[in-house]
């Protein structure tokens, strides 16, 4: 006996095949959309993070208020740099800053003295600091535009010699966020009969 397939059965088979292809296309599109959404979210998150880091590298810096040298005979033995937070800066911890001292006798990388107290002096390749103004007792963290802290450099301890008249020095202060402040000064040509000089 022969079995005949009617037109209706053929159309039904074609319809089922089309439905399967359509469902497969919808699934592929849904998976692709999910991947795109996840990728877009990841890229947005990374771009925000990168933007914040870039902003901190520009704004989280210290700003020089005054640089003073202590005169000993005809040389400068201590350099005190008073700083405040830069415009738009967040919290800056002086203990987490690194300092590059470029002077007549060479270049030195200085870090905060770990055993700091207000009476100690720098020893070795370190700097110390002192509080000038800190209304909320947050030192050594600069967290207010009115804060003033002072870097103290004992030149003879790390540079093996005091600064003579006419010496040129560059101090680069690098914060934890990566922002750098450069301070340049020249020791005056005449230090006689002076106890301190503005640099």
Automatic annotation (TrEMBL):
One MF term in the entry's GO annotations: structural molecule activity
Family: Belongs to the archaeal flagellin family.
Annotated protein name in UniProt: Flagellin
Role, per record: Flagellin is the subunit protein which polymerizes to form the filaments of archaeal flagella.
Keyword flag Membrane: yes
Protein localization: Archaeal flagellum
Signal peptide positions on this chain: none
GO biological process: archaeal or bacterial-type flagellum-dependent cell motility
Keyword Nucleus belongs to the record: no
Listed transmembrane segments: 12-37
GO cellular component, one term: archaeal-type flagellum
Keywords attached to this entry: Archaeal flagellum, Cell projection, Cilium, Flagellum, Membrane, Transmembrane, Transmembrane helix
Domain of life: Archaea
């Amino acid at each position: 006996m022969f079995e005949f397939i009617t037109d209706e059965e053929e159309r039904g088979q074609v319809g089922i095949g089309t439905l399967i292809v359509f469902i497969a296309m919808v699934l592929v599109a849904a998976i692709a959309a999910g991947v795109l959404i996840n990728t877009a979210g990841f890229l947005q998150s990374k771009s925000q993070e990168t933007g914040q880091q870039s902003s901190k590298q520009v704004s989280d810096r210290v700003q020089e208020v005054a640089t003073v040298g202590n005169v000993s005979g005809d040389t400068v033995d201590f350099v005190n740099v008073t700083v405040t937070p830069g415009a738009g800066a967040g919290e800056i911890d002086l203990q987490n800053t690194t300092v590059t001292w470029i002077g007549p006798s060479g270049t030195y990388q200085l870090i905060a003295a770990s055993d700091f107290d207000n009476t100690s002096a720098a020893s070795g390749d370190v700097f110390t600091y002192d509080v000038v103004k800190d209304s909320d007792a947050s030192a050594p963290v600069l967290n207010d535009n009115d804060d003033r802290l002072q870097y103290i450099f004992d030149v003879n301890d790390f540079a093996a010699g005091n600064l003579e008249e006419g010496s040129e020095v560059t101090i680069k202060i690098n914060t934890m966020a990566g922002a750098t402040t450069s301070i340049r000064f020249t020791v005056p040509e005449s230090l006689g009969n002076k106890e301190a000089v503005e640099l």
